[in-house]
Every structure is written in structure tokens, then in C-alpha cells.
Amino acid sequence: MTSSYTSNIFSKIIKKEIPCKKIFEDENILSFWDIYPKARIHALVIPKLNCYNFESFIEKENIQNIGHFFSRVNFIATDILKLKDNFKLIINNGEKAGQEIFHFHVHILSN
Ligand code: AMP
What we know:
By secondary structure, the chain is an alpha+beta fold. It has helices spanning 3-14, 54-60, 63-80; strands spanning 22-25, 29-33, 41-47, 88-90, 106-110. The chain has a 5-stranded antiparallel β-sheet with strand order 1-2-3-5-4, covered by helices on one side. A hairpin with a 7-residue loop joins strand 2 (29-33) and strand 3. The N and C termini lie far apart (29 Å). Mean pLDDT is 93; it is low at 1-5. It binds adenosine monophosphate. Adenosine monophosphate binds at residues 9, 20, 34-36, 44, 92, 98-101.
């Protein structure tokens, strides 16, 4: 798998060029199951706006959309996945921090 392929994979999922196991979608975000789960429950949440990491998401988006995004993350974790009081959020920001896919995403994990 080349790096340009991996860096664009979530954009391709948004454009439905690559399939995913969808959990939730609205006009601004998409959530789906991680293909290589690191916990019993491992979901991903991505904005449809193309930004390569957390820093660029915060720089590009206005505060309302940032709030909407994290409110949706909470909704998916608590209402859809039923993980109230029992989940971990992870954001890997940058290659040195372990980021492999360069489209900003939040991991929701729970065992
Ligand atoms: P990160 O290391 O924070 O960039 O996380 C990238 C995550 O994307 C990893 O947990 C991968 O298992 C996951 N992943 C890679 N390709 C896919 C895919 N096609 N569908 C769902 N998850 C994926």
C-alpha cells in the first residue's frame, strides 16, 4: 500500500469509491468501523471536510462546526454505540504521534 493511497483512503470512503461499514452519517461527518480494531469496539469518526490532521481541522473549521463535530462524536459513542461512561477517544496528530491516515479522524474505543 503506497503512502498516497493510505493518505487518501478516508476521502475515497467519503466519496463512496471504497466501501466501509457505516455506523452513522450526516451532511458533515461519517462514522464507520475500524478495519483493524484495536479494542472490542473500535469506531472512527471523520469530518467530510478534507483536512489532513487535527491541527488543520481546528484551523480550517469555525467553532460551531468544531462543536458540532465533537457533539456528534459524543452522540455516536453514547447513543448509537451505548458506551456511556465507558469509552476512550484517541486522536493521533502527525506521523511521529502514530497518525497513518492523513485525513483527520477520532478513534472511539471500548472493551
Ligand atoms: P491513525 O493511525 O490514527 O491514522 O488511524 C488510522 C486507522 O484507520 C487505523 O486504526 C486503521 O486500522 C484504520 N483503517 C485503515 N484503513 C481503513 C479502512 N479502509 N476502513 C476502516 N478503517 C481503516
